[in-house]
Write a structure and sequence with these properties.
Immunoglobulin-like, 19% strand, homotrimer, Rossmann fold
Chain lengths: 652, 652, 652
């Protein structure tokens, strides 16, 4: 049982010291609890090489603490100062085209650079020694948004050296690498690890095993880079939470690995900014939700990062108004800031922290709104935050997120694998996962995300494993012990971990689990869809022809063969379903497993938290939730929810 | 009172000397007055380093002069010879991606390169000393189309060095720069000017103040580069006009600054080539005017460059037929060459010069038509030029351009600022200005363009100031003294000159002028429009929520707040109007100020010059101008104007 | 009289030696005759520098030969090993942006690099000496798909040096080059060959004559590179065919020149892969044939390469199922593999060889299907191959391709010229040729392609010469002696070979041949079409205004002038016809020359081979060929052809 809290991101180095106390007072008066500071302040902490001086930061922390606020202190390693970059110019990342990515914005470093890692350890230790035991500090944030601006993969000399060592460690001798990768193809045999280059600037695409290993290496560098900071913080600032703020729609490194060393996971939620990325693919959808954000996008990330955080979730940055970085930046519909915040709590978040306190009148993000305008007046979100504070108070303590009836397995390397080899231009792993999630949400379900390292699925009625490129030992173990229904495919188990098609053909499962194999794969251009029969919808983008043996029966067929196979509690899905077909598949699984579902109308979403069921209206029109299964008494805004309305009921 | 003249661009170095006299004779016979020569002839003037020999050019000038023609001599600095580039390879510009922009076409130089500047001074002085006092020379053109092919911004070592010096000059000490830019953001604090890089190849966008200053620096280099030539020409060739040929739809440097040192301004008018740039955004419009050009594009540039030339305007290059450089190059509708030429005179041009005399059968522009075909036969435009010569003769002397009833303020740095920080993908300053201009033209108005350095607007009924990113001292002065109606916004006054949002929020005007401020800004994706009420049209692309106090009243409202505010003679426009709303706003302003307007049909345009009113039909169908307010007697083609028709009447 | 054979591509180095014999047995049992091996095996042949060991390859060849198969041995020069690249890093090509194109895929070499040429001679000689007299070897393939992945044009130091020498050889002295190119334009005069750069990274487009000469030089390097291998193979492996496998839709080098030294020509036919390139331009067409491929694409390339091979044609790689390299990769409609193969034979192919025997489970092409799946089971194509073997047996010997009634002249440099100077964004020479070919095919005609070096057209009723940028001596000779009808234009003869517009204007033909000239050229944007009158269709993309004199009459007119001129047996076509107009022009020519035509319905195509007439149904619906002129008795699948059906009849 917990009571959710609110927070805000604050940059004392942007404002006169004389203003800090008043800011702190107003934060506190607004009902905020946490304040994140410091994550871009290196040049203020160490204006000259070696001259670390955190006096001002101590003063800021104390000012905030005096007002009753708790500080989340960011390590400043996402923005090394100019003098540091000048002292070792090769610390910057090199882009895929071979160009240095220079100073002048942020994240101008290569994760593989040993010299920069030493500098990070130095500054973090300096900060932790000076401030780590300060009672005002409740938590740390390492760096900021790892990978932002496409910074995980760097094609630098440091990365090359590190990659060769990593390969040597992984394969032992070069012959093993040649065998594993299959370098017989196109005469790519290597005689030593020293012959191996980074997989960029090749004449045509580089070898997929080469690329996947470089991605794994690069992901590992993020984890190693982070771990060095965690070590120091655990040592010099014990008892504080260690967190990182991940991003939405971003899978360039294995977040489960980084978060495993932390005390939870947080993410930065910009619903409208992210929606704009869907404008091209889903123009009508994007137009419909242009001021609300996608109704499933936030939910998905809450569930994903709650998994990464092993149950502990924050929103470290919450959009409070128009942002500056999307192609177009409209204002949220009134009420959405409150809705987004409450939805995070419904998904188990402990804290929602707004980005940022006061809009900066200078710099790259000057058009990013905050809670206050540059003149310190209240911007639009403040009234919604006040209302939310009252809501929270009225609801009392919140239960913790309980196990959902259904789950989806998420695997970062699968995202890399299918970006390396999509085979169809629109086959994207994260999209496939998200389409699966959406289908379950449209049915009114509460969903958990499971790591591909989870080895116990007990308690779920059904688990979906779409597009997992190579089985993990843990997933196979979980699958074999699982008593619920598992829906695998398409493309699941279609490679071994060296990016080879298995000798026995996908999906590489023993006959007693699934006596079937994929004999043809097709990617389908937008003008081709395969009819799943009658009112069932279609397969789009991807379809596999399946051969099957004893004990397997098709659930339904298409003109190109079975659309869904069933063998006991295992299902294999032959392709990428469109919306209609996805709904049918979810309905079938629900019927099989006895899960209660409700077809929700456009924009209405619900989520269970302990004994509560929340309802959220993302649609631009009102909706009466009683028509969709809600029963009185209804708390907060219901039962007729206007746009951005929230309701709450006790589960039956 | 003046009589317009015609001219042509000629390349004696492309043809045998034996042909020159006959060419000159035919030019003269056609009724041409001016001949531009020499602007790409450096390798013919100095075939070996140091061996300047202008004998052939003198002979060409004398041949032309003997036929009664006046010469405009171009300095050849847009095309340095290969030997010169080889002697200092670092003189070429560096593109944003860090690649040298090499010899092999034209404009292969960096404005910041001191060595190349010296070479330019040398060759211009050599030419001016040899030919500057020749009576056949009536004018000089410095260089050619500054900035063409994206050459203003160069990321070279010379530019870096120059930029650092320029910053030092501007800010004095580095602390002032840090304060002005706001380098506290993302730890970008600099310890010295030597730490500052050029703002390219950064991980994500560079700091906007950094980028704007680099743009200002780069624009200044163009002016300085030009001024060195002007100095020499004034000294060695006194009494001749000094001109430069600017381009259409191009604002990469401050043309007002360069033109301030000259004796007028000229531009290169390619109506059909430029129209093709609008195909993607306005496909139906582009299809409708595919052989005529946009009906407002030429007019706008005539008015802009007449302002830059402080009343003196030429068209230095006029499209005579299909060009070679647009994606597609159709032929003009018969009559358009005559129409475009006469329209230039209606906007105050003294001379219209065709590009070029004879189509070159070789080189990059071999598909660019001229007055003559490669075989010296008449190409299609010749008959229109002959007709035009007769028209001019029939009209007698022309009056000079008189002050228009309305004006628009144009500011080059605002174009840079909003390209640096559009905030909405389609927010473009030049487009906003042009949409404003179009709206006034659709109402039949004659328009002036005012520089943002103009400090006196007296005589105008109304002045529009859209999108001016930062107030200039002069504009504020003009505004405060102005007795007409001023329409400012959107986005006007939203930054200080260091690219900061003002502490008191935009538009930074004292309460007695405008007691209102912008409290939210939104960029609107194409699927979102804000209803301006009833028959009023919509705001698109951009909308600002305005708070206002005593003395201010909304002229009309939208669901998101006031669309237009009024305080005495000041109006503030909250967003980017669509066509319908723009028409409504113009109509309101006209009603307020007593300006007579007429809603012109598609493609029909008019322009007043002294006591004359010209009518031009850009539409592909005939139009009877008597239905739109023209009164007999009507000169030239009217009253029923066929496509490309021109009419003329005495103003009432 | 011949009997067609089948083959397959095989990579013994990808599979255990123990598997080879069984593979060979199954190939033979399936009815295959040829097996291509070795073309990517350099690192297996020479695992350490200098240690060439072809023992394994000899063993593979013997294993195949023992099973009755004939080997086509590829030289491995498309994939030099890593150690070789490391030994001379400057051997890689440099892309247009100046970046090295590195090891890690294939074709990582520059054709101009002398060191690499020596290495190629060394390895080819080593192979030829060791295996050249082996009786199992029936043919050689030099390298693999010259130019694939955009590798003809390389901007390396080697290329620069070679280009300067080539220019010196061509022009003798620099003055001749300056005159030929027309370097007076934009001061591009050169003082020596050493001043000439490669035409990349220029500020705007480089000089067209410069670019065309660099393209000619680059094409020549391919021929020279290839010739060195041919010399060795002729010497050490006499009596074997020497071949190369060309690509579809690819004209970056002069294939006629390379093939002239060989014993025929082969190409790699991927009908569905190539169709996807048309999705953007012809979306409905691409959707209609998404699983069949374009109905004319294969035919065109068979005819083109049969011309290049002087009558001898193979398909070296035939698509057997989904490929890996198109944006989307659907499966062929059942029957298409058989249809494509038989169609090749109908066009005179001797052999069709499938790519590849067994799908590789590793490497870049792991998603490319073969005849066998990775688990060695039969993939979908095997049944079709079996059926085809039976078809061939049932038909007995095939006649050779006889002369067609009509022909089209194809010229590689014209493709380069119009890519250098399209003037209209969609003016593409290969497209124009293909549209002409399609129009003739829609009329049911059998077509020959003629090289622009062919000097005898006798026997044809009509020859089309569209878009030939500069007359070749041979084409002029053929034209002047030809007794059939010649249709030239648009754009034919519009330049001399130095890329100049001729002094007398295009199309540079003597009056007694064609007393007409082009006086205006227009490229037409998609929204503009010129009506060819009544039911005649329109000109699109390109139109020329023609002046004509005595003896010339318009066949039909447009509002912009004549659409087609006629003078005796010469026709000049003024623009790019749309489908309807092309059909009308073909019908007129047929009527003039007495060729019998039949308007074929969508997807039905026919082709005559000796006394046979083949019918192929590419449409997704059945068609009764008796309605389109077929007469009983009909062999194979007719008379009602289902999708992918093939029929055969004796010509009347």
């Amino acid at each position: 049982m917990t009571r959710p809290t609110l927070g805000v991101c604050y940059y004392p180095e942007h404002w006169p010291e004389s203003q800090w106390a008043e800011d702190a007072r107003r934060m506190s008066a607004l009902g905020l609890t946490y304040v994140r500071v410091g994550e871009f302040a290196w040049s203020h902490l160490e204006p000259e090489p070696g001259a670390v001086d955190a006096t001002w930061l101590r003063h800021a922390i104390e000012t905030l603490a005096s007002a009753g606020l708790k500080v989340v202190l960011g390590t400043p390693t996402a923005t090394p100062p100019k003098w540091l970059v000048d002292s070792m110019p090769d610390m910057v990342a090199i882009d895929e085209m071979g160009r240095p990515r220079r100073f002048g914005s942020r994240r101008h470093y290569c994760f593989s650079h040993a010299g920069y890692r030493r500098e990070c350890i130095r500054i973090v230790e300096a900060l932790a020694r000076r401030l780590g035991d300060h009672p005002g500090i409740a938590a740390w944030q390492t760096d900021n948004e790892y990978g932002c601006h496409n910074t995980v993969l760097s094609y630098s000399a440091s990365a090359l050296e590190g990659f060769r060592d990593w390969l040597k460690e992984r394969y032992g001798d070069i012959g093993a690498l040649n065998d594993a990768w299959g370098t017989a193809f196109w005469s790519m045999t290597y005689r030593s690890f020293a012959e191996i280059d980074l997989p960029n600037l090749t004449v045509t695409e580089a070898h997929p095993a080469h690329r996947l290993d470089f991605w794994r290496y690069s992901s590992d560098q993020v984890a190693t880079f982070d771990a060095a900071q965690v070590d120091i913080l655990r040592r010099f600032s014990p008892g504080r939470l260690i967190l990182h703020n991940y991003m939405g729609r971003f899978a360039d490194f294995d977040h489960f690995k980084v978060a495993a060393e932390h005390d939870g996971a947080t993410w930065d939620s910009y619903p409208i900014g992210f929606l704009s990325e869907r404008r091209e693919r889903e123009p009508e959808h994007a137009a419909h939700f242009v001021r609300q954000g996608d109704p499933d996008f936030q939910a998905f990330h809450h569930d994903l990062y709650r998994a990464a955080g092993r149950g502990r979730l924050w929103v470290m940055e919450q959009q409070p108004g128009p942002v500056n970085w999307a192609p177009w930046n409209p204002a949220p519909l009134p009420g959405m800031v409150r809705l987004w915040s409450m939805e995070a709590f419904a998904h188990g978040a402990e804290t929602v922290s707004y980005f940022r306190w006061r809009q900066a009148p200078f710099g790259q993000e000057q058009m990013h709104t905050g809670l206050l305008r540059p003149d310190s007046s209240h911007d639009a979100a403040v009234a919604e935050v006040s209302s939310l504070v009252a809501d929270i108070a009225s609801l009392g303590t919140f239960e913790e997120a309980s196990q959902a009836p259904v789950a989806i397995v998420f695997d970062y390397p699968s995202d890399w694998a299918w970006r390396i080899q999509p085979q169809g231009a629109d086959f994207n792993y994260s999209d496939l996962i998200f389409e699966t999630y959406r289908a379950l949400r449209r049915a009114g379900l509460t969903i958990d995300i499971l790591s591909s390292r989870a080895e116990d699925w007990s308690g779920y009625h059904a688990v979906f494993v779409p597009g997992l490129f190579a089985w993990t030992r843990e997933t196979l173990k979980a699958l074999s012990r699982f008593e619920g229904v598992t829906i695998i495919g398409p493309r699941t188990g279609s490679r071994d971990r060296n990016f080879r098609i298995p000798d026995d053909l996908p999906p590489i499962l023993p006959e007693h689990i699934l006596n079937a194999r994929v004999i043809t794969t097709q990617s389908l251009p937008p003008e081709v869809a395969i009819d799943a029969g009658g009112r069932n919808g279609h397969f789009i983008r991807w379809f596999e022809t399946l051969a099957h043996g004893d004990g397997v029966e098709p659930v339904f067929n298409t003109p190109e063969g079975p659309g869904l196979l069933r063998q006991d509690r295992i299902r294999y899905l032959a392709g990428w379903p469109d919306t209609k077909l996805f709904d049918r598949i979810v309905a079938d699984v629900a019927a099989d497993t006895g899960i209660a579902i409700t077809a929700l109308p456009d924009g209405l979403r619900r989520r269970e938290l302990g004994s509560w069921r929340f309802w959220f209206n993302y649609a631009p029109t009102p909706v009466d939730i009683r028509r969709h299964g809600a029963k009185k008494p209804i708390l907060l805004d219901g039962p007729v929810l206007k746009p951005a309305g929230i309701a709450l009921e006790q589960r039956g």
